[in-house]
Amino acid sequence: MEDLESSELGTKEFWEQRYDEEISNYENHGDPGEIWFGEDSVERVINWMLDCNISKDFKILDLGCGNGMFLIELARNNFSKLYGADYSENAINLAKAIADKQDYNFINYFKHDILEKLDEKFDIIHDKGTFDAICLSENAKCNRNKYLENICEILNDNGYFIITSCNWTLHELDEQFLSKLIRHETIPTPQFKFGGKVGNVVTTAIYKKK
């Protein structure tokens, strides 16, 4: 996996400012903000979970939860042990406000940076865009390795790690993760053609521990 050029999208300061603006929009207009990669990216993952009869009692972590809308949709589908982590305090504040207004205050939101250790285990870890942001940070290679190490540490032995990326192909995700994980499945995503070649708008892959 090649390094990308670092970007403001890989900085905490960018996301704090972004979610500060979204808090203001939510307070003034009731707009919860953008769903990264679109609502269909959320629907695909939840439909996979429902089709696979994933237990509603599974302990689920949304990593880089942002405004928390993925967890809101899980709550609407009767999943009960829901956790959202983000290193942006403003994102956590926004997610809590949205969940409380919709009477989903059982969702547990907390501030955490996945590059730091977390003393907890989960049956499902979901990442939609957080790994992408890490890949745009300074010292990206080192941070990617810390990310993988910490994911493996907090994932239960029979758990699922679900990742959606707009920056990396399935082959490139495998390059990063197959040293410690096994690819369990992929979720089909929209395709495009360019120059006679076929690609995916985003990639969604599901991994388990070796």
Automatic annotation (TrEMBL):
UniProt keyword annotations, A-Z: Cytoplasm, Methyltransferase, S-adenosyl-L-methionine, Transferase
Annotated Gene Ontology cellular component terms: cytoplasm
Main localization, broad class: cytoplasm
Superkingdom: Eukaryota
GO molecular function terms noted in the UniProt entry: protein-lysine N-methyltransferase activity
Taxonomic placement: Eukaryota, Metazoa, Ecdysozoa, Arthropoda, Hexapoda
Protein name per its UniProtKB record: Protein-lysine N-methyltransferase HHI36_020291
Protein species of origin: Cryptolaemus montrouzieri
Location relative to the cell: Cytoplasm
Function, as annotated: S-adenosyl-L-methionine-dependent protein-lysine N-methyltransferase that methylates elongation factor 1-alpha.
EC id: 2.1.1.-
Family in the record: Belongs to the class I-like SAM-binding methyltransferase superfamily. EFM4 family.
Domain (Methyltransferase) ranges: 55-177
Biological processes annotated in GO: methylation
CDD domains xrefs: AdoMet_MTases
